[in-house]
Design goal:
Blueprint (H helix, E strand, L loop, with lengths): L1 E7 L1 H5 L3 H11 L2 E8 L3 H7 L9 H8 L4 E8 L2 H9 L12 H5 L8 E3 L3 H11 L13 H4 L2
Antiparallel strand pairs: 1-3, 1-4, 2-3
Bound molecules: 2'-deoxyadenosine-5'-diphosphate and magnesium ion.
The site of 2'-deoxyadenosine-5'-diphosphate (DAT) has 9 residues, from loops.
């Protein structure tokens, strides 16, 4: 079983797309484990995007992520990281397939609506950065056997 960190970025919140975006992950069959609606401090944004420090888009990226509230979440399932990434679509909405979140709702790379961990190490790091172990909700989903064999 895998866990991934997903965030609805400030553009997704401001545009009233929280429900649509969460719905994509729910309908896909991923299981929600933790969720928080919050403003993001500069310190947290910089820790989250530390791998991009020094890139030309870094300052704009930090300004964007700290510009308004986000929805931070943890979703679980077999291959949750890859499943979430292809539900989101590739980084640039122009290349993202129709039917994906970025492909359906976005037009520019700097307003691509959603973040998702890109691998198991990143997921562990990001979940630990945004949440504590106590924030993880232990629950049994009654539809489980209709989603997984
Ligand atoms: P992803 O969010 O798909 O994991 P990433 O980790 O490479 O993509 O980059 C993080 C975010 O930074 C991305 O969602 C949007 C922004 N970004 C990445 N590359 C960019 C670029 N060349 N110009 C502007 N913004 C960029
Ligand atoms: Mg990334």
């Amino acid at each position: 079983m895998e866990r991934t960190f997903i965030m609805i970025k400030p553009d997704g919140v401001q545009r009233g797309l929280i429900g649509d975006i969460i719905s994509r992950f729910e309908r896909r069959g991923l299981k929600l484990i933790a969720m928080r609606f919050m403003n993001v401090s500069r310190e947290l944004a910089e820790a989250h995007y530390a791998v991009h420090k020094g890139r030309p888009f870094y300052n704009g990226l930090i300004d964007y992520i700290t510009s308004g509230p986000v929805v931070a979440m943890v979703w679980e399932g077999p291959n949750a990281i890859a499943i979430a990434r292809n539900t989101m679509g590739v980084t640039h909405p122009l290349q993202a397939a129709a039917g994906t979140i970025r492909g359906d709702f976005g037009v520019e790379i700097g307003r691509n609506l959603v973040h998702g961990s890109d691998g198991p190490e990143t997921a562990a790091f990001e979940i630990g950065l945004w949440f504590g172990e106590d924030d993880m909700v232990d629950w049994e989903r009654s539809t489980e056997r209709w989603i997984r064999e």
